[in-house]
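Researcher: We're teaching a course module on how sequence relates to structure. For the next exercise, students receive a sequence and then see the predicted structure as tokens, so they can try to spot secondary structure elements on their own. Here is the exercise chain.
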Amino acid sequence: MDLSIIIVSWNTKDLLRDCLKSVYRETVKYSFEVIVIDNNSPDKSAEMVRAEFKETILIANNDNKGFARANNQGLKVAKGKNILLLNPDTVVLNGAIDKMMDFLLDNNTEVPGIITCKLLNGDGSLQKSVNSFFTLSRSLFENRLFEKILEKVSRSDTKVMSLWDHSDLREIEWAFGAIMLISEQAFKKVGLLDEQFYIYAEEMDYYMRVKQAGFKSYFLPDAEIIHFGKSSSRQRRAAMFIQNYKSFYVFLKKHYKPHVYYVYRLRTYIYMLIWIIVYGLKVLIKTILRKQNSEEREQFKVYVLTFVWHFKPDSFIRI
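Model: And here is the predicted structure for the students to work with:
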């Protein structure tokens, strides 16, 4: 079998249905299996898969095991030579998986480690997904406070991947994990996802490990999928925002010198305070003007809870 497609789902039944339909419709050149791991979705996602996609292998968990651990459940039973990790909130377009497999198998000079493709928003606009690995100096400026300034110096050939227009085939450092085609050779050498990452940053960690193993990763612009983005995590906004920091701190402690983690935490304290002030003022002004401010209140709450969490013992990550 050429490929195992692994999809981890939590509470995204309708999106998952559309995703599976697109996979079976658009993937025709290669033999493949689809493995869905459902993390105890309350919306009966597992029942939908059983009833409507009988050819799909379903692993229905009794609790939410997180993204990395659930993917590993699928990886352990996968029979395909190559592995595709796919988010449930995606729709495969115009044979995208076939195109990625073509590039993987037709590459005569070297075996790629990971291949990703172009992500589109639901309205068809580009969703920028490729990034450079973290550096402490760049992290001080890669923030919404500075993004408008950075956008003005953006060029298609820029080395700042988050500003690149995603228009050409390119070797990359890492990309969002909405879709990751992992070659047989890379998977044999690198192995399973690191389960220290409950959710978030596990793809960045895997790209780093693939690079450390001597493989290159590529972005393929001719293959496209729609990615609706964080559909399940949006349902638990504050908790997932904090989880994002937890996972990123694991990544920093795992791959960087010790001081980097502490300097970045200090940077986060400062930025959190700034955003608390910004959104606090927005809430105050809109309240005085008697305007709708539910979004500002929610964002203010998220930043406050995240700031407070940083002073709790469980925020100090140990690996």
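Model: If you want an answer key for the exercise: Residues 8 and 71 are 6 Å apart (CA to CA). The radius of gyration is 20 Å.
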